[in-house]
Write a structure and sequence with these properties.
Helices cover 21% and strands 23% of the residues. With 228 residues, the protein is an alpha/beta fold. The protein has one domain: TIM Barrel.
Length: 228
């Protein structure tokens, strides 16, 4: 089994930023060994120099916190990279006609008990993100965490306190969900430090991982990810 690596691009005010531990108001433009610029095209092309990734995750932080959105920029990027599938977290999303290479990410933190049934309209064509806060608390509608009839085939376990921290992945959380729901493909997100973490995830039968900081810092290189 091969672990699929999915680079993450966090957008804020039109720039790619360094997401760290979910404290979104403090996010600063990215500093990366892959590029000297923080626009989305420079970052995308920097990632693509490492590998021809076929899937990216974009977080529209402005939309997530309810302050404008980056829809125009994101859809422009999708048109320019039609061969790539983009998982897009844009906060609370309603069903609409999406571009063919756009897969909405629906995060639990953006849904309440009053509106969580809206997810049924997507007919499983989305990626669910189960979001955990700084103390491991479940964010958003609690029904999302137990009623698997609302889940997609692929479910992200988003541990926000690990995002950008380089503190390692929450492997125990992943293993618990795998044990409880063996029919679901759980996706690791947050904390990847190095090749050793990728090996650990692969040994734990995780099939997908979201990552950014370890690529930007150079901790993961073209050579070190070649085996995945």
């Amino acid at each position: 089994m091969t672990l699929k690596l999915i680079p993450v691009i966090d957008l804020k005010n039109g720039a790619v930023v360094h997401a760290k531990q979910g404290i979104r108001e403090n996010y600063q433009p990215i500093k990366s060994v892959l590029t000297t610029k923080s626009d989305i095209y420079s970052v995308l092309n920097g990632f693509l120099k490492l590998r021809t990734f076929d899937t990216f995750y974009i977080a529209d932080l402005d939309a997530i916190i309810g302050q404008n959105n980056q829809n125009d920029l994101i859809e422009q990027v999708l048109r320019n990279f039609p061969q790539i599938t983009f998982w897009v977290d844009a906060g609370y999303q309603e069903l609409r006609t999406f571009p063919s290479n756009y897969l909405p990410v629906l995060g639990s933190e953006c849904f309440t008990d009053d509106n969580f049934c809206e997810i049924l309209k997507f007919e499983k064509r989305f990626v669910l993100s189960l979001d955990f806060g700084s103390n491991g608390e479940q964010l958003g509608s609690q029904k999302f965490f137990t009623q698997i009839e609302f889940w997609s085939e692929n479910v992200i376990l988003m541990t926000l306190n690990r995002v950008g921290s380089l503190e390692g992945v929450e492997i125990d959380v992943l293993k618990q969900f795998q044990h409880d729901y063996p029919q679901i493909n759980f996706i690791a997100a947050g904390g990847v430090r190095n090749n050793g973490d990728l090996v650990q995830l692969e040994k734990s039968r995780i099939k997908h991982v979201l990552l950014a900081s370890a690529l930007h810092s150079g901790a993961l290189t073209k050579a070190s990810i070649a085996g995945f």
